[in-house]
Amino acid sequence: xxxxxxxxxxxxxxxxxxxxxxxxxxxxxxxxxxxxxxxxxxxxxxxxxxxxxxxxxxxxxxxxxxxxxxxxxxxxxxxxxxxxxxxxxxxxxxxxxxxxxxxxxxxxxxxxxxxxxxxxxxxxxxxxxxxxxxxxxxxxxxxxxxxxxxxxxxxxxxxxxxxxxxxxxxxxxxxxxxxxxxxxxxxxxxxxxxxxxxxxxxxxxxxxxxxxxxxxxxxxxxxxxxxxxxxxxxxxxxxxxxxxxxxxxxxxxxxxxxxxxxxxxxxxxxxxxxxxxxxxxxxxxxxxxxxxxxxxxxxxxxxxxxxxxxxxxxxxxxxxxxxxxxxxxxxxxxxxxxxxxxxxxxxxxxxxxxxxxxxxxxxxxxxxxxxxxxxxxxxxxxxxxxxxxxxxxxxxxxxxxxxxxxxxxxxxxxxxxxxxxxxxxxxxxxxxxxxxxxxxxxxxxxxxxxxxxxxxxxxxxxxxxxxxxxxxxxxxxxxxxxxxxxxxxxxxxxxxxxxxxxxxxxxxxxxxxxxxxxxxxxxxxxxxxxxxxxxxxxxxxxxxxxxxxxxxxxxxxxxxxxxxxxxxxxxxxxxxxxxxxxxxxxxxxxxxxxxxxxxxxxxxxxxxxxxxxxxxxxxxxxxxxxxxxxxxxxxxxxxxxxxxxxxxxxxxxxxxxxxxxxxxxxxxxxxxxxxxxxxxxxxxxxxxxxxxxxxxxxxxxxxxxxxxxxxxxxxxxxxxxxxxxxxxxxxxxxxxxxxxxxxxxxxxxxxxxxxxxxxxxxxxxxxxxxxxxxxxxxxxxxxxxxxxxxxxxxxxxxxxxxxxxxxxxxxxxxxxxxxxxxxxxxxxxxxxxxxxxxxxxxxxxxxxxxxxxxxxxxxxxxxxxxxxxxxxxxxxxxxxxxxxxxxxxxxxxxxxxxxxxxxxxxxxxxxxxxxxxxxxxxxxxxxxxxxxxxxxxxxxxxxxxxxxxxxxxxxxxxxxxxxxxxxxxxxxxxxxxxxxxxxxxxxxxxxxxxxxxxxxxxxxxxxxxxxxxxxxxxxxxxxxxxxxxxxxxxxxxxxxxxxxxxxxxxxxxxxxxxxxxxxxxxxxxxxxxxxxxxxxxxxxxxxxxxxxxxxxxxxxxxxxxxxxxxxxxxxxxxxxxxxxxxxxxxxxxxxxxxxxxxxxxxxxxxxxxxxxxxxxxxxxxxxxxxxxxxxxxxxxxxxxxxxxxxxxxxxxxxxxxxxxxx
Length: 1206
Description:
Blueprint: H1 2-21, E1 26-28, E2 37-42, E3 48-53, E4 57-62, E5 67-73, E6 79-84, E7 90-95, E8 99-104, E9 109-115, E10 125-130, E11 136-141, E12 145-150, E13 155-161, E14 167-172, E15 178-183, E16 187-192, E17 198-203, E18 209-214, E19 220-225, E20 230-234, E21 240-244, E22 251-256, E23 262-267, E24 271-275, E25 281-284, E26 291-297, E27 302-307, E28 312-316, E29 321-326, E30 335-338, E31 344-348, E32 356-360, E33 365-370, E34 377-382, E35 388-393, E36 398-402, E37 407-412, E38 419-424, E39 430-435, E40 439-444, E41 450-455, E42 461-466, E43 472-477, E44 481-486, E45 492-496, E46 508-510, E47 516-521, E48 525-530, E49 536-540, E50 547-552, E51 558-563, E52 567-572, E53 578-583, E54 588-593, E55 599-604, E56 609-613, E57 619-625, E58 631-634, E59 640-642, H2 644-649, E60 651-655, E61 664-668, H3 673-676, H4 681-685, E62 707-713, E63 716-722, E64 731-735, E65 738-741, H5 748-751, E66 756-762, E67 773-780, E68 792-797, E69 802-803, E70 806-807, E71 821-828, H6 836-855, E72 860-867, H7 877-886, E73 895-907, ...
Parallel strand pairs: 71-72, 71-73, 73-76, 76-77, 82-83
Antiparallel strand pairs: 1-60, 2-3, 3-4, 4-5, 6-7, 7-8, 8-9, 10-11, 11-12, 12-13, 14-15, 15-16, 16-17, 18-19, 19-20, 20-21, 22-23, 23-24, 24-25, 26-27, 27-28, 28-29, 30-31, 31-32, 32-33, 34-35, 35-36, 36-37, 38-39, 39-40, 40-41, 42-43, 43-44, 44-45, 46-47, 47-48, 48-49, 50-51, 51-52, 52-53, ...
Helix pairs in contact: 6-12, 9-10, 12-13, 15-16
């Protein structure tokens, strides 16, 4: 037995750290504080900052990145003061709830509650401080006293009394023997810590003392005051030595420099630097408004302000540059609704800017943010036709909005209290509003006029609803419960009496079958009523707090309730039994069913929307609007889809409190892309997309990548990697955004398990890549090579530049060489494509013209590699490779553009590669690439492309792909058009990350949606050319420039609109470059605009059928012969062809040609009709002979063309 106990103890000691460490990562929503930030403190090592807020919480942030790490919750009132212990392991928070709390920083655990200054009245704990040895704590209060506490035990030691007004600031002397307090009674007092006796009074300020600090040697004190001055005092005499004038507001913070020679002081408007000995003002720095408190980090020369806003800002003193902002932009979800057609989700967020957000279910994206920024939203509703939204507002009005544009259509006025609830009638013609003026009103949507005012409630009307048949309306109020009214007469039918619920909330719902009503009741109960009799049928019990939202399922069989207890519950209506309980981490404010009844949607104060499976009760997805444009969709297993901006804003945190050096480990979404990035995630989860879901292990126990330290010695880079128990995997090195080393490890098998690995990279190998100032970035993966580290960066400045291994003389300081532009433009019209080469030629022409105007003709080289149908190939793989190799002669200051148009196929499964088909390829099916020889000869993979592009030194680089992803099924209708496949997005994303290129890719589902639109070219090319012609130019005075971000951004916006106009879906892939300014690739004059050709929309003609009248068959194959004539016309005239066609049975707005013919020996008579949709636009008869069928087909085409109008 003893041996067994010893064995168990041994295993525990060995495995406990690992068990502790293997904690599930927590997804951190960047919410920031939800009320004003009023206090903060930096950790002694400067790595962390804590902020306290009026929202009663304290938050821990990482200083280097500004990322939120943890929320500390427990105070009942605002957190007004914060302090770190000297060793950084603990933190104290003081609150207006009369308490001080001790927290363990490494775990977030509450250690002690200190019930301070408890005299039955809530006084603010205005200031707290640790003793230098960390054993004691001081708390100052607005009850005019200061208290001393033993930190370890939480024991109260004694009280310091003597001030006649509230204490604003407290501090220990550097040796811990004395305590100092500053008060609104205009004095500072020095106290003996051990006895609690006053030693000395410091008098001289003419207003309250708002800030103070000891010098490092403890001989002096500096104080700031509401009299707009600061004073230096001698500790031994209590006399002022200097008074500093210059501030125009309260001096909210002061600090000595570590050497005691300087003082920094801050007020609401300025930051001043003073010399101690002379009292001279040396520097006036940042000007800003609204400052409440501030902190100064001398080692990093950063000044930080906690203002009466919801964030903390860090400023760099020397440059007056905003260094970091600690904040979050996600908002509480107050309201949510599915559109009746199931295509959109509308979420409302109360009083914030852009407080309405539209999610598109089919794409899984946040597509629009809008709202009434001047007034807080109280309620929302969507019209039955899914086109409009209503919002009830705090300013006594409500608005109707166009969902497609986000524009307000009309404001309804007439209430005298906030509009707490709104709803549409079932036919969409009327609106219902409930207000805190105790009334409900019925409105005509078209005129905006009120029809009825329903009076009878004694309190505010919080909820309103129409019956399914629209004949009755229901209103809910806090005091006198529910009332049912007749719509046509406005008369009260009956009241449903129940105990008072809430003055602010009375959620109600009609069952879709019109038989029942749901309402909330006191104690978290849900009640079911019979509409006809007004009798209570049953109560549903299970919530532990009040109910905030209720809903029926579409079939009326189930009920849903959301509660302040952070849960929502699904109930069986007939029995009252709970079926599922779902949880949020915050109050659940709003719930609803999807229109088809398969899903449940819930919104919460935890700033998330969650979608749940009705049958299984499992969470399907979490939707987060990071800000007005960026968004994230995640699953419990860790899969995610996100906008590019959200990749940087969202992160996971792994807490390992056993690691005191780094207890909070941040994992950014960008680091997880290798395994967990699933583009188009939401439509896949909800069954709107047939794309397969990635099969990966759940994101639970994390093997972290190594940490990285970089240093430069001469012309060598030293990379030090520290294993964080996850192994040391692939180590990639980037110079100016381009990957130059795929894996720096010399021996991966040996190096993967090293505890510390130090590697050296000679930079002379990359001399041709360096500009004057360069950024070297290193990213290391964990041992399994699926989780990358956060990048480590270092700046490298060269004395001169080199090209081709030959050193050049250093450029004069500030003098740069003239940039050159090199472009390789490829277009391959093969395998059914007609216009890819034309697209390439038009882009090449536009680039040549614009770049020449910017850089001059001798500095522009645009190489065209195009393959036309029936012409000798010029875009073979060898041709493209040769051009890319020639581009390696560019210099760092140059610009490089690569444009590819044609076919592209994904091959290799969920982590496969994207292959561009070069001249000579004979099929666009993925099966065509199963032969390695085919891939080697006729396809250029994104992996190969990455390798070539990384060898190009130019720092300003752009890749445009306008490709067709056709394969089997390309002959289907245009409705098959879709967004870029997820596997293709992943391949493009990898390419962009490794090359540092701007990447824009448009991938149509088939040849129809690629080029056979009414534009006769790729939609992406059309949008880019339109942008060059003036729609996306940057104006600078009288000149216009082709700014890359503006140009590409315009195309991203336009392509979906163009695709929608022809009945398809296309959302281009676009990735810019972080932390790099955009650049110009051209200048456009009126003369240049005139030379850039854009195809005008053209009619589409489809040859549908031909038939011999007696045999009911096309015995002469006349249909194919007419189609051949049409294709020959298009191939011959290209973009100038008067009409277009495609291999499709149907096309929106297309003309169709059908005919019947008779045979009399050699003679043929053909009767033809041309239709547009189902309307005949003309008919004609053509005659010919069997021996001249091609001529006959041409005659048919010519006559048909005459009936087809542009």
